[in-house]
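Much of our argument rests on the idea that a fold can be written as discrete symbols. Part of our work consisted of pairing the sequence of a single chain with a tokenised description of its backbone. No coordinates are needed to read the tokens, only the vocabulary itself. The record that follows shows the chain in one-letter code together with its fold in token form.
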Amino acid sequence: MSEELEKQESQKTVVAFISGLLIGGLLVWVFSSSPEQVEAPDVMDDSDTEQPASDGNNTSNEAAVSGATNNNASNNTVEVGDGSITVNDQPAGNSVAISNLELPTEAGWIGVQEVIDGVPGNILGAARYSVEEGLIPTSIELVRGTTAGGVYNVIFFTNFGDKGFDLSEDTLIEGISTTFSAR
């Protein structure tokens, strides 16, 4: 009888082992399969925010990727050329409206930088643009809003290619900027 009991226990062990392998294989398959490709939304959310490193020039780690809309205020195309931007004086707030835009490169960033006593300071927000992706910002969402009476620069940066704004990799495009006041 003891032999028969051992045989049953051995069979139970083999069945349990095989069941464990099947369940384990199923779990590996479920968790390792690639998720469905989801089309990127027109507006990036806060989960796309990346905090840049300081470049040592009185810039802050407060800059963030903003919600850049997938159109241009004036028409559906935007020119790539020498680069220019118009931002009218506007009420203080958590976003900056862009009035007119000519991009200096096919892809990059438009940043809003505070000016304190005539000296450029922290980057308050940045919006990514990409002609290829049709990502043309009409406004720039800020991590920290503008204040009434404040002066701000709007400047262009290169895009290192990772779709995240990082002052240690994305460099300022010199000579293209505008200034506006918050009221």
